[in-house]
Amino acid sequence: ADAGISVTDSVDGTVVHNTLWNNGFTPDVRRFARGLVYKANILDRPLDLRDGTAATVAGNLVLRRPGDASLFVDAARGDLHLRPTARVAIDRAPRGLARADIDGRRRPVGPRPDIGADEVPRP
Predict the structure, then answer these.
(1) 3-state DSSP call for residue 69?
(2) For 92, left (φ over 0), alpha (ψ -120 to 50), or beta?
(3) What are the pLDDT digits (tens) for 102-120?
(4) Residue 88: which residues within 8 A CB-CB, separation 6 or more?
(5) What's the CA gap between 12 and 111, in Å, rounded?
(6) What confidence tens digit (pLDDT) does each residue in 28-48 have?
(7) Residues with Cβ < 8 Å from 115, sequence gap 6 or more?
């Protein structure tokens, strides 16, 4: 029931391949941030760079609304794995950000990594 991801006083931090769904507040960067990389995340609300902070932000996907479950297998039950039909997230992330997904599956499985915490398995 809060921001899901808050970054405070970060130097050379990295926030990559996370999945947020239906949290209470916007993900944010507060106070001081230098050299922060914020990429390939699925966010339930737009990122809020507060207090004059800055970050290298790219390749994130913001859900249409915080409770939009259309990309996920069963979000209401906590299963935020991507559906194989989630084309806006599959093979859309930059390379080289993370070697494995939330289940330990190597990235990428396809030509490029998937956005968010999950890498959809291929047959």
Answers:
(1) coil
(2) alpha
(3) 999 999 999 999 999 999 9
(4) 61, 71, 115
(5) 28
(6) 999 888 999 999 999 999 999
(7) 17, 40, 41, 42, 59, 60, 61, 88, 89, 92, 93
